Amino acid sequence: MRRRLSRREFLRLGATGGTLAALGLAGFPGPSLARTQLDARIAVVGGGSAGATVARYLKQNAPNLRVTLIEPNETYYTCYAGNWYLGGFRDLETLGHGYDNLRERHGVEVIHDRAEELDLAGKRVLPRNHDPIRYDRLVVAPGIDFDWERIEGIDQDDTEQIPHAWEGGRPFRILREQIKAMDDGGTVIVCPPEDPFRCPPGPYERMALIAHYLKSHKPRAKVLGLDPKDSFSKQSLFKQGWEELYGDMIEWVPGSEGGAPERLSVSDRKVFTDGGAQAHRGDVINFIPPQRAGAIAWKADLVDDSGWCPVDQETFRSQKHDDVYVIGDAAIAGAMPKSAHSANNQGKLVAATIVGELTGEPTPDFPTVNTCYSLVSPEWAFTIAAVFEHRDGEIREVEGSGGLSPEDEDQDFRQIEAIYAPGWYESITKDMFG
What we know:
- The structure is a single chain.
- The chain is α/β, with parallel strands linked by helices.
- The chain has two domains: 7-145 and 291-433, FAD/NAD(P)-binding domain, CATH 3.50.50.60; 151-287, FAD/NAD(P)-binding domain (3-Layer(bba) Sandwich), CATH 3.50.50.
- The protein contains twelve helices and 25 strands.
- The protein has helices at 7-16, 18-22, 33-36, 49-61, 82-86, 100-104, 170-181, 202-217, 235-246, 295-299, 340-359, 411-433; strands at residues 41-45, 66-70, 76-77, 96-97, 109-111, 115-119, 124-127, 133-134, 137-140, 144-146, 187-191, 222-226, 250-253, 261-265, 270-273, 278-281, 284-287, 291-293, 309-310, 324-326, 331-332, 368-377, 380-391, 394-397, 403-404.
- The chain has a five-stranded parallel β-sheet with strand order 5-2-1-9-20, with helices on one face.
- Strand 1, helix 4 and strand 2 form a beta-alpha-beta unit.
- Helix 8 packs parallel to helix 9 (235-246).
- It is globular and about 65 Å long.
- The two termini are 31 Å apart.
- It comes from Halorhodospira halophila (strain DSM 244 / SL1).
């Protein structure tokens, strides 16, 4: 019987990466003859948090597997921890991760190219600039795409003026430079998306950390959140931190009170809400669009009417195509949020599942976990954590596992969690990228 971790144990292990081993998420327990002799080719499309993890752990679990990772970018910039850069206390370059370790230390074949098409009948990936890649099993980690058609007045061509900063790298730099150039007394508008979307607490951490920067450099400025929703992840903890640290610098308007963006005017930087009756002008507007599964998932018919990819939530095998697994933000994963930690766990689970299927060995029965740190300043943080299991056909949270940071903790506890946050980041990105 598995022993349940206390919340403090969970957070301490999560900060050091120990949770992964403690909960059995490192893969198979040791080498076997079947796995060391296994000869099959696995193609992985997408080299973000999920794709990098599954590629690494396929090779770790079965070193003779031929694993090919197809990813267009030579450096992957994480979206998570990007808000720390916007807050002025993290360099953007430290959020970039290359693929040399996966290639040289773990033996993953990395092809920097875009997968233009998936020939699922012929079991081939068709990259733009390389020969077709044949596979025995395919893992698709397509990430997200933006559904621009759901909001009037803005499209992908407008992201230089109205950045979303919901993909790592350049979009964050654009937003950061706009905030730095804004006059004191200006307004930054943050527009979170409708559910579901990548990193549910992210927009609200962003509001706090932009305010952190403004408090020091532009103390008369404001942050306005215009939200289509009436509630959000960690809401009471965020509001507690906002009020304590920033007073009335941050204002959040829920959808039921006229906060839902309905139209944007890019040229004069206005967001229209409440049936168009309210026009909110921002010196800087961070509009985070509604989201759906990445484009390659649509081209390959891996999505359903929700815009996301239905999977068998025990194995992450696609419900639409055999021999295809979909992991990360694009997958419909029950109670698991669309987070980096979830993507990392899903990658390990699928690596173990594929190796077990190819060798006939039983697949390890381990739970999946999620830990998410949110900062409202460099010295004030809180977490949400959970353990998940497959039950009654879907992923469900284990009752009594994890939970939110208590609201009545003192500043010392908040500071400890803020110290743990970068430790979690360094640990999990090392685990993903080798």
